[in-house]
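Figure 2 data, in text form.
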Amino acid sequence: MSGHEIDDLFQRIDGQGDVLGTLTADLVRIPTINPPGDAYEACAHFLGDRLAARGFDVEYLRAEGALGDSDRYPRTNVVARIEGDGPGPCVHFNSHIDVVAPGEGWTVDPFAGLVRDGRVYGRGTCDMKGGLAASVVAVEAMLESGIPFPGAIEISGTVDEESGGYAGVAWLAERGHFSKPRVDHVIIPEPLYKDSVCLGHRGVWWAEIEIRGRIAHGSMPFLGVSAIRGMAAFLEKVEHELYPRLAERRTAMPVIPDAARQSTLNFNSIHGGLDEQDLTSGFPSALVADRCRVVLDRRYLMEEDEAEVRAEVVEILDRLSAERDEFEYALRELWSVPPTLTEPDSPLVRALDRNIERVLGTPSRHVASPGTYDQKHVWRVGKLKDCVAYGPGILELAHQPDEYIDIDDMVASAKVMAAAALDLLRGSE
């Protein structure tokens, strides 16, 4: 791009701070809480209507039959496309529209879209409606500038990323929406800092373990087998054997924060015995628990193998089966995704690197995410490797009370997105 073109483009985006704040606040006021999947259609149509008014061809694509889809909670995705001046590549900006539940601890209304002191507050501002707004304003500024470009630009708002993305990006990828020749480069504006290009993420392996006991009267526990005691034995071995091993493993992936550069394991939930009840209404029955279940969330490194990740858990369970009388277990794998890491010299990364330095005056950082995001489906299903996360926002604010995003960060990221997209479309190096 000429100096005049880039100056004009950046001046246009500099003047859009209020627009970015308003657009983000409007998106936050549509409470797309997942689960269960509230207000997806309303949010998809809000975004689609805005883009259609600016000349985009807009499709609303419901993932009928996908996990979670129902008439009450339709999994509606929106994909908008605008063609350039001739044949060329396609740059796609993908953002998820779902947000997690607000939880406790807020000092502001999580869905009011409060704009105060240069920030927008609310659930989803950081993760990732602020990034979505930045990508929309970036592309609008490109179009308003009149800078010619070949190829096409796409913007999508997709569902269910917070619960795996299977009715969103995965479903669309299965239908060719994230594959060549339709799309060449994908930018996902997740909140991983305006100066950083996120090349990928750690792997994930989720599993449910059920320990099976034998029911008996609680006054005579020696006639039964407590599944809770069996689970306690498993947890004790994990605590004293597996956790120390995981802490010693470090990755060459540039994962942030630094503590996430090791292997981790989190127990997502645990339940044993009778269903929970309010003890003010009476005492539970006197029973030995014959079932106890735990869901574990294992994040692993590119230096690790998924089969080995599974095997080290199974080894502990098998050893307990040999050590303890009547210890029985069942393991059910819930889902898994291998690590991803886009090459740092790919065309998309180089374009973002150039323009981060151009906008911020400092070299970009290459990072990797501690958790997965929808890049996994673009890679695995779409077979498209030129995909990264880049967007405004502070990673540690995601899913927190009083979540917010800085408007200045959205302005800076929108400049980077617009200039990088033009470089890719016009073949600039």
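Caption note: The chain has two domains: 3-201+341-426, 203-337.
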